Amino acid sequence: MSTIAENISQIREKIAESAVKSGRRGEDIMLVAASKMNDAERVRQAILAGVDACGENRVQEMRQKLAENAYEGAPLHFIGHLQTNKVRDVVGKCDLIESVGSVRLLEAIGARATTLGIVQDVLIEVNIGNEATKSGVPADELNQILDKTAAICGVRVLGLMAIPPIFNKNYEKCNFFEKMSHLFIDIQRKKYDNVYVRYLSMGMSDSFQVAIESGANIVRIGSLIFGSRNYT
User: Fold this and answer.
1) What is the DSSP string of 15-77?
2) How far is CA 77 from the centre of its chain?
3) Which structural domains are found in the chain, ordered by start?
């Protein structure tokens, strides 16, 4: 069985290959270790092996690992669905909240950050597949939420995030990744107050190479680093 360090080394090679295909370098792509259901020691191993950041999906799990200093040496991203009543547990604890999918949540984050006297960096999550079971802003409402960002203190939007629908074929995923890339380029060209477009976060263990080739510069990888999760 491969070690976490060996897995990360192999992933880095594939990231570099895909980055070259999109006219970039491997170091232009941020590798986030999606560490859901992995304990503090395994997170530390991933950090020692050189991941760029750690990503957590669950607030309670994140709080436990923070208490254990699991993320020391790496930035922390929150990448899961965030409820407004959990905002106080995340704002100021994470370097980047990737999964902001509504104006209401953005306002709650801004209010908490203002209370703490900080500015919280976030990404806007886009429901690129218009799936009823997923959170995120519909693509055709993205400009509206970005317009409203100017009036919200305490937050800074750094880009977009998406979780496309699950497909068995890469070319089907590619269609959604390309749509996200077009949205990303479009908002880069526009001028929104409080919006500084740097990151396009999309692509996971089964799709990160296609995502990079379509323009992603953050990928969130879990099972390829840590092994398959045991949900039982």
Assistant:
1) HHHHHHHTT--GGGSEEEEE-TT--HHHHHHHHHTT-SEEEES-HHHHHHHHHTTTTTTS-EE
2) 7
3) 4-226 (3.20.20.10)
Burial letters for 27-41: b for 16+ Cβ neighbours within 10 Å, e otherwise?
A: eebbbbbbbbebebe
Helices (H), the chain: 4-21, 40-48, 59-67, 87-90, 103-116, 142-149, 170-189, 208-213, 223-226
User: To the nearest whole number, what is the mean pLDDT of the chain?
Assistant: 93
Question: Each residue of 119-167: pLDDT tens digit?
Answer: 999 999 999 888 888 889 999 999 999 999 989 999 999 999 999 887 6
pTM above 0.85, yes or no: yes
The end-to-end CA distance of the chain, in Å, is 21
Our CA dihedral for 144, 135, 56, 98, rounded to 10 degrees, sits at: -10
Q: Which two tokens stand for residue 21?
A: 């295909």
**Residue 197 to residues 35, 40, 187, 191: CA-CA distances in angstroms?**
26, 32, 7, 10
Give the whole-angstrom CA distance, residue 81 versus residue 69. 23
